[in-house]
TrEMBL record:
It comes from Candida tenuis (strain ATCC 10573 / BCRC 21748 / CBS 615 / JCM 9827 / NBRC 10315 / NRRL Y-1498 / VKM Y-70). It is found in: Mitochondrion. It comes from the Eukaryota. Keywords: Mitochondrion. This is Ribosomal protein/NADH dehydrogenase domain-containing protein. SUPFAM superfamilies: Thioredoxin-like. The keyword Nucleotide-binding does not apply. Transmembrane segments: none annotated.
Length: 152
């Protein structure tokens, strides 16, 4: 019988306890001072556009941004819509033309960040710069104390 798919591939090294696993996932998504930012309310939506093909090297940074940074941004910007559009291509020529970008929507227009061949941390820095996002207060980022959770 096949093992059920778990989130351990996304969150490696989680504790065995179910409660500690959930608390650790929350702390990871909650972010750190380097990854947790709050957008101005005028930014209404953020779109990620990337090819469906996982082996497309120019889009690896955007995939990592999607996996590592987007959950934290969504957590702290609950009033902003986030969409991921995966484009299906049938040939290598179409794949080469497929956009790899982030589109930031405001009340007055759109801004685009080309993400081809850029690391996820550079993409985050560009998104923060274009949105004028502010770091989340470190007091808010304390997260759950796993020692307290373990004893409950």
């Amino acid at each position: 019988m096949a093992k059920p798919k778990t989130l351990n591939s996304m969150f490696p090294g989680l504790p065995k306890s179910r409660l500690l696993k959930q608390a650790t996932r929350i702390n990871i998504i909650h972010g750190s001072t380097a990854t947790a930012f709050k957008f101005d309310p005028k930014f209404t939506r953020l779109d990620l556009i990337l090819p469906q093909n996982r082996l497309h090297k120019p889009s690896i940074g955007l995939r990592q941004f999607w996996k590592h940074n987007l959950p934290t941004l969504k957590f702290h910007n609950y009033d902003t819509e986030f969409h991921v559009l995966k484009v299906q291509t049938d040939s290598d020529q179409e794949l080469a033309k497929c956009p790899t970008k982030v589109v930031i929507h405001t009340e007055s227009g759109n801004q685009e960040v080309s993400c081809e061949g850029i690391s996820h941390s550079d993409i985050l820095a560009k998104v923060v710069q274009l949105t004028g996002a502010t770091p989340v207060d470190p007091e808010v980022l304390k997260g759950l104390d796993l020692n307290t959770v373990a004893h409950q």
